[in-house]
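Loading example: each entry is read as two labelled lines plus one structure line.
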Amino acid sequence: MTGDRTHPLLWVVTGLVLTYLAVPSLLVVVMSFSGGLFLEFPPRTLSVRWYQAYWSSGSWKDATVRSLEVACVVTALATSLGTLASIALVRLTVPGRSALRALMVSPVVVPTIVLSIGLYSVYARWRLIGTAAGLVLAHTVLALPFVVLNVTAVLYKLDRSLERAARSLGAGPLRTFTQVMLPLLWPGIASGAIFAFLISFDEIVIAMFISGSNPTLPKLMFDGIRYELNPVVAAVSSQLIIVTALALLGSAWLRRQTDRTSR
Amino acid sequence: MRPRSSWGQALVLVGPALILLGTVYLYPLARLLVLSLTGGADGAVGFGAYRRFLESSVYLGVLLRTFRISLVVTIVCLVMAYPVSYVLSRVGSLTFRVIMVFVLLPLWTSILVRTYAWMVLLQANGVLNNLLRRLHVIDEPLRLMYNEAGVVIGMAQVLLPFAILPVFASLRNIDPRLHAAAQVMGAGPWRRFRAVTLPLSLPGVAAAGLLVFVQALGFFIIPALLGGSRVITLAMVIETQVVDLLDWSLASSMAMVLLVVTVVLVVGFDRLLGLDKVWV
C-alpha cells in the first residue's frame, strides 16, 4: 500500500500466534484416533475405537439427539422472533427504539454464570429443570442478539424504495414482507440462524445448571472432562470441529450472497 | 405517517421477543437482585449479603484474583493480537483469507473442545511435558495446569479472536495517505508507526481490551477445568454457593456485583468511545 514491507519478524510472531490458535483443535483431531487407553501425541497405534465407543453408547447418542433437537427449535424460534423485531427496530418509528435494540443485544454482555443461576432459581419454581422447553427458552435469549445484529445489518443496507414500490402497487404489509423483504433479507436471516444453532448446540454453563438429569452433549462432555480425561470426548470434539468448519464455510458463502444482493 | 397503525405493527413485531426476554431474561435477573437483598438468616431486607461478600478476606481474595487473571489475559491477548492485526491490515486477499480462517475457526470451536485439548497438552504427563523431557530440556515435569498460568493460557486462546477483530478494524480504517504523507516528510518506518499507526489504532486496542476483559471476568468453564481447586474465580464461587452450599443470597450478591461491573464497563466505554464505531 505505502511501499512498506512487513518486517519478517512480524510474520514469525503472526505464525506463532496462529499456531497457538490452531494447535488445540488440530491436536484433538489427531489424538482422537489413538489406539491406546489414554490420549497420547503422537499416537503410538491408530484406531477408531473412540468413535465406535461414541456411536455405540446410548447416553452419548441421547445427549447428541437432545442437543440437536434443542438447537433446531432455538434456531427456528430465535430467527423468527429476531427477524420480526429487527424489522420493527429498523423500519418503524417505535418509541424507545435504541433502548429496545440495546435490550435485545444485551444478553451478549451479561455473564452467562449470572443468567444461569437466575434461571436455575426461577426454573426450580416453574418445574422447568431438566426439560427441553426450559433449555430452548434460555438458549433463545442467548441467540437472539446474533439474529438481531445480522438481520438489522442487512436491513440498514436494503433499499427502502422497493418496499414503497410494492406498497404503492397495492401489496399489503404481509405480501410486501413475504414477497419483497424476505427474499432480500434471507442471507442475513440465514447467517443469524447459523449463529443461533451453534450457540445453542455449544452452550454449556446454562445447560450445566438447568439440564438436570437430561444432559445435553456439552454437559456430558464437561462431566467426561472434569473427573477423568475420557478419550471419547476427543472423538466427539473432532466431529464437532468438522461440523463447525462446514457451518462456518456456509456462513461465509451466505455473506458473499448478502454483499451481492446489496450491490 | 400513520402513527397509530405503526404502533400496532410495532407491538406485533417486537411483542414476542419482548415477552421472551421479560420472562426468561429480565425476570430471573430481577429475582437475583431481590434474593441478594433479602433471604438472609432473618429474612430482613438489606445489604447483609453484600457485606458478607465484601468484608470477607477469602471472597475479596477471589474477587482480586478474578480481576488479576482478567487483566493478565487482556494484556496477553492485546500483545498477541496487535502484530497479527497489523499483518492482516496489509496483506493481499488470499493471505488475508487464510489468516482469517485461523482466527475465526477457533471462535466457533466449542470452548469445551479447546479446554479439553489444553488439558491433554498441559498436564504433568501431557504432550508438552513429554516433548520437553524427550528433548532433555527438563527433567521434572513443569506445572502448567492447575495454576493461574494454565488458566491464562486457556482463556487467552479463547478470547484472542475478540482482540484481533477490533484492532484489525481500526488499523484497516487508517487512511493510507497519512502514511504516504509521513513518508514524504521523511519519517522512517519506526517513526511512521509510532506517530501515525499506533495512535490511530488505539481506539481499536481499547475496544479489544474491553471486550476481552469483560468476558474474562465471567469465565467459568476454563478456570474450573484448567485451574481446578487451586485457582478459584468469582464465577466458580457463585456456582459453589448455589450448588453445594445453597447460599442464594450470597451467590446473588456476587452475581449482582459481577453484572454491575460488566454493565458499567460496557456502557461507560460505549458513552466514551462508541463501541459500534470500532467494531468490524
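The mean pLDDT of chain B is 87.
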